[in-house]
Design a protein that fits this description.
Elements: E1 2-4, E2 7-9, H1 11-25, H2 29-37, H3 41-50, E3 59-63, H4 69-76, E4 80-85, H5 88-100, E5 107-111, E6 124-130, H6 139-149, E7 150-161, H7 170-189, H8 192-204, H9 208-217, E8 220-228, E9 233-240
Helix pairs in contact: 2-7, 3-4, 7-8
């Protein structure tokens, strides 16, 4: 059994339910992130990519990257980007968006499960996953797969909603997450349940030290993490030795 928000479901059921959530919100995913973060996710992503240390020509795997947001920013730094996402609807929306912007060369799109990546071992220089790890059913298994496909010396970068570190904001944050956000989801996107799940999934996700320990258990070295916006989200990084 595993978690789907605050519910306990089988692993297969979680994969199916998460897929249904993202089928539902694919065309409104940017709107969803804007609602959840009041638009600040765009700044978080820019900072995230700017601090990854990408070099021209490096091979980057962007997991759960169907929106194309991270790929666009990495492409601007002349990285060669493979975008992988388990959800076909998300990939279709992201690919169409970037192609409309004329971004085709240096970008490859692959539908793939993070728990069983269809890539050779020791291949990528960098691997990013932004706001996607909490939706993976078997997170330890996925982290082992991320370790496998990175080259020795390759770097993992995880951007994810995390545990708020400012007690004075917790009351307002809980109200926003569990009362305001689902209502906005219903009014703006016609889908309160998906937004409720996403708020719940943040609460069930490991806190910063626990996730750092999970990276270490997967084999990563020099693991570090830093909070953004008081811990509303955090960046975790590790290196394959």
């Amino acid at each position: 059994m595993t978690d789907f928000g605050f519910r306990e479901v089988s692993a297969q059921e979680k994969t199916r339910l998460v897929g249904r959530v993202f089928d539902s919100v694919a065309t409104r995913y940017d709107l969803m992130n804007d609602l959840m973060s009041v638009g600040i996710h765009r700044l978080w992503k820019r900072h995230f990519v700017a601090t990854c240390g990408l070099r021209p020509g490096c091979a980057l795997l962007d997991l759960a990257g169907g929106t194309g947001d991270i790929a666009r920013l990495a492409h601007q730094r002349r990285a060669r980007v493979t975008i992988a996402d388990i959800n076909g609807a998300m990939l279709s929306v992201g690919r169409s968006r970037l192609e409309r912007e004329g971004l085709v060369a240096g970008l490859d799109w692959v539908q793939a499960n993070a728990e069983a990546l269809p890539f050779q071992s020791n291949y990528f220089d960098h691997l990013t996953i932004a706001f996607g790890l909490r939706n993976v059913t078997d997170k330890p298994r996925a982290l082992v797969e991320m370790f496998r496909v990175l080259k020795p010396g390759g770097r993992l970068h995880v951007l994810e909603f995390s545990r708020l570190a400012l007690p004075s904001l917790r009351g307002a944050y809980e109200t926003w997450s569990f009362q305001v956000l689902p209502r906005l989801g219903s009014l703006v996107a016609g889908d309160a349940d998906s937004y409720r799940y996403l708020a719940e999934s943040i609460r069930r996700f490991p806190d910063q030290p626990t996730l750092a320990d999970m990276l270490g258990e997967a084999g990563f070295e020099r693991v570090e993490w830093s909070n953004l916006s008081g811990g509303i989200c955090a960046i975790h990084r590790g290196v394959k030795g």
